[in-house]
Amino acid sequence: MELVSGEPGGPERAWLESVRRQGELSQDQLAAAPPFRVAGLAMPLVEPSYLAGWSWESMTTHGRAEGATVHGEGVHEISLFYGRMDAPAGPAVTVTTSIVGDYGHQVHSLEYELADERDRLFDHAGIDEPDPSGTPAHVTGLLRIGGAPVQADVCRHGELWAARAELALAEAGPNNNRLVVTVVALGIAFEKVELAWVEDLRPLVLARRRLLDERLAEGPPPSPTPTFPPDLDVHRELIEGSLRQARQIEEALAEGRPPSPRPRSSGRDHHALWQAAVESQSQRRSQSAEQANAAVTAMVNQMTQLAEAAPWFGDAPLRAAAIGETVAYTARGEVVPSQRAQEAWEAYWATRPSPPFFRQAFESGDIDHDRRAALAREHRDRYLGDRGRWLQEWALWAMERGW
User: Is the pLDDT of residue 207 over 60?
Assistant: First the structure.
């Protein structure tokens, strides 16, 4: 598992404005010609309401479900939100309409949707509660959509519920497309919810823009900045935190829920710790912020990949020694017993597959197909060889310590 860099800072304002303009163009196209019928909340009345998001995929991959496209892409999911994002007890309702076929886009499980809603409550309402105990309960209920009762799977867990109903399409096409409606709610009983087909998406698009304008004007909400003891070894602490984060991601994926950290606030703490490690690296090794961030990124990824690939890493003393030597090598520039493994990692990390390489290898008009394939094989072989040497050097290091 490769963890992304935690480099502080954000994109330029001009880039943000460009993205915003592109988003508004897509929203206008979506509102003018929705690609399929979109369900929304009819009862009870919950305000405000706005377009929450939409998803699409390349038409060249799976074809068009039906109707319009946005920027040449087939829209397959549209979500509407009702309520206040920052209301910890609701009422809040998300209604998502999706096109689902035998291949291509598939919806998440209802358990995933409930976990995702708890992530939303943390992001917008500051609620950082553990997931409820016990197994989510599934029952069958009738969800009224456009005045007609439709059988739905209803999943309840704690104070949240999610429901899903599937409707046939008149033109299912070769992909056997169906219309799937998913509702996630807080603070409203399932029996009181009625949906209707939205005739006009434009008011919901405009409401989204007004909301974004208000949030931009207000600026980001204040959030506590974690502080660390002056004697804390931030490099080692960052590695330990990253290893916990990697384990949590694996557990979440295995359980079919979003890979968000537990507790959720630990994600913010992890980012602050990463920044502290970059600053410490820059000061200790007289590196620029960019160089320091690259060094910290490589350090963290070496340890998380060792945890996945090296059986000996489960031995506590060996694990602690490997982390300690990696910190000494990276943060202080010391010559360490695992020097050959550290240098092998640098070679491996430098040759790992990257998007620029593949763009050059596969999109260059100056290189024919056979040459592109040969370049890809050459890069793959060098990459796998470097990885093998890196793991072998660490294995020899572990053997010298009695493994």
Answer: yes
Average pLDDT over residues 163-183: 86
Tell me whether residue 83 is in a domain.
Answer: yes
Q: In this structure, is the dihedral angle defined by the CA atoms of residues 181, 212, 269 and 314, taken in order, positive or negative?
A: positive
Residue 14 placed within a domain: no
Cα–Cα distance measured from residue 343 to residue 394, given in angstroms and rounded to the nearest whole number: 11
Q: How far apart are CA 194 and CA 175, in angstroms?
A: 29
Measured from the Cβ of residue 86, the count of other Cβ atoms closer than 10 Å reads: 12
* 93-105 per-position pLDDT tens digit: 999 999 988 777 7
C-alpha to C-alpha distances, 47 to 92, 160, 229, 396, nearest whole angstrom: 9, 19, 45, 64
What is the per-residue pLDDT for 354? 57
What's the pLDDT at 14?
59
Cis peptide before 44, with omega less than 30 degrees from 0? yes
Closest by CA position to 183, among listed 138, 153, 140 = 153
Statement to judge: residues 251 and 121 lie in one domain: no
Report pTM.
0.66
Residue-range definition of the domain harbouring residue 105: 33-218
Q: Residue 55 belongs to what H/E stretch?
A: strand 49-58
Q: How far apart are CA 153 and CA 65, in angstroms?
A: 24
